[in-house]
Amino acid sequence: MSAPGSHLNSVSSYVKTKQTLIEMMADHIVGSVDVTHLPDEPVERARTVATRYRDALLAHRDGGRLVAGTFTGTGKTLRVADTIAGALLDAGHPEPDAARLCWSIVYFTLGLTQEQQTPSDNPRGSFHELVATGSYPSLARIGQGVGGSA
Questions:
Q1: How far lies 47's CA from each of 58, 61, 102, in Å?
Q2: Chain segment 24-62, per-residue pLDDT in tens
Q3: Is residue 26 a contact partner of residue 72, using CB atoms and an 8 Å limit?
Q4: pTM for this one?
Q5: What angle do CA 61, 120, 33 make, to 5 degrees?
Q6: How far apart are the first and last CA of the chain?
């Protein structure tokens, strides 16, 4: 029997703070992204990693929000970004452009995933319904490239 006040079997004995637990969860989600067996073509390689990243986020309730609010610093997040950046560099983008594109892809994926995981009882209408009003002509022109699937 454990001494009074001892919690050897509790999570708190392994994880000292709530923030540490959240960081571990985010690290697990990002760590599940497979960056192996990628296409040779650089743009397709970046697209494949971004898709796998999104799939990993969607596989967990509130995965996008959890990962977006956390920097784990373990290298798993950086491993995904490094693979995307490498593909962009291999595609011929100069370093500054590759950096901007890489982080744009990562943060766009996070944002889009968060929106997709948000409950859909929006009284204002869906993205596609709002665009169809004609009030957003530029978004209507680029169509399916923004706002996820129909």
A1: 16, 23, 11
A2: 889 889 999 999 999 999 999 999 999 999 999 999 999
A3: yes
A4: 0.74
A5: 30
A6: 58
